[in-house]
């Protein structure tokens, strides 16, 4: 037999799922709820939406003051309802403009306050005071008006006059036109080659896009390299400044000691001349000094004492000894 608790399990699970879904929805819409409280609604008419989406920012002088709410179509204009902070003042002549925020096409609404009065919540900013990035309908309408204003009869007369002038033109003009014809024919014949060239250019652009990180790193390394060069430039400039300062000091020293240096240089020149005159005597003295130096080295080469040998103090053969085989005495 099932208990009351077992019978209430499905109901309890359903209530739990509903509560969990409510909490998730509240978390996801917390930002939008924050925009709704403490803000007021401003309606703007645009000629076209131009890719604007709900949630896109609203800015005044570059500062975000709200977000885009609902976007709807009212006859030939697009009505955009904005949620703008209450403390932002908007005059009764306020202008609105759709601007591109990023290169990927993200847009935002830019408001420019104007007028002495206050813009009421029921009042719309009319399409006459709004601008879009590109109004294709207006461009096509303007083109139609310009084409409609062309005088076809006058245009036909102009073409006939041009044709008659070209018929009576000099051979040089005819040759130039013939050259243009051959050029256009050559371009048309090279159509496949041009397509291949464009395809390869597209491949190159794709490779560059794939290597964008490498290119960015290369630019950064180039910046580091330029910074090092700038440091070396400063060091070289400092070296040049110090070199110029040293040169000035040397010049000043030479000028201040010129009176003392002249006699010294003359005496040095005289000494050098004397040495050149006695060059032979000096060479002979060096040659004679060599044996003396060898004997001196032999005497002092055993340490801090003299080695000497005295010959002839005693006879070679002492009394009572026999002469040696060498015939000594």
Task: Outline the fold blueprint.
Blueprint (H helix, E strand, L loop, with lengths): L3 H4 L1 H20 L1 H7 L2 E8 L10 E4 L2 E12 L2 E9 L9 E6 L6 E6 L11 E2 L4 E2 L4 H13 L3 H16 L3 H19 L1 H20 L1 H45 L1 H20 L1 H22 L29
Parallel strand pairs: 1-7, 2-6, 5-8
Antiparallel strand pairs: 1-4, 2-3, 3-4, 5-6
Brief descriptors of the model:
eight-stranded mixed sheet; 329 residues
3D structure, described in words:
- This protein is an alpha/beta fold and 329 residues long.
- The protein folds into three domains: 108 residues; 38 residues; 86 residues.
- It contains ten helices and eight strands.
- The protein has an eight-stranded mixed beta sheet, with no helix packed on it.
- The longest helix has 45 residues.
- The protein is elongated, with a radius of gyration of 54 Å.
- The relative contact order is 0.05.
Strand content: 5-15%
Strand order of the largest sheet: 7-1-4-3-2-6-5-8
Largest sheet: 8 strands, mixed
Number of helices: 10
Mean pLDDT level: 77
Annotation, overall tally of beta strands: 8
Mass-distribution shape: elongated
Distance between the termini: 154 Å
Number of domains: 3
| Alpha-beta classification | alpha/beta
